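Title: Prediction job returns without error message
Component: structure pipeline
Severity: low
Priority: P3
Assignee: unassigned

Description:
Job completed but the reporter wants confirmation the result is attached to the right record. Sequence as submitted:
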Amino acid sequence: MGFATHLGPWLLGTVRNTTGTTVGTIENCGATVVSQTFKKNYTGQAASATTDTICVLPAGAQILEINIDTTVAFTGSTAANVSIGDGTTAALYWAATDVTTAGRAAISNAAAKLGAWCGAASTASPNGIGIGATDVKIIATMTPTVAAVTAGTVQYTIVYTVADSTGLQFPASA
């Protein structure tokens, strides 16, 4: 099976423009949801911070979900704290969380972090929605404490919708 690349958002639905007031004549299109995944084996990492680019999101993208899955439990270090940001603000999207135990990290983010996912406080994109008017690197910062990691693997998945080239979350015209 191969991959196909489509350079723009896909809208799905049966009615593109509203022409009436009853179901079947009211616009019902929505943007598709996509994801990017990055997996990192931290075995051998010293007890100091390291950063990795998880992915790059297109301008105007809106983050819907962040999954941090520890697939191999951490040993050696007493804690393995990870935060997710944009390279400028280390914990812009996810506050520091210990991920030493195998499983999915629970979301315990404050409203301000979740607001950054959709750009609620941003006026960077033309409509104030999304991560901004330019592509953004999503960075994971891992900080083991006390000792080097002797085992530990984490998989990061960013789920998002794509904006069109005008920066709008949904294209204004076909």
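Comment from assignee: result matches the submitted record. The chain has one helix and ten strands.
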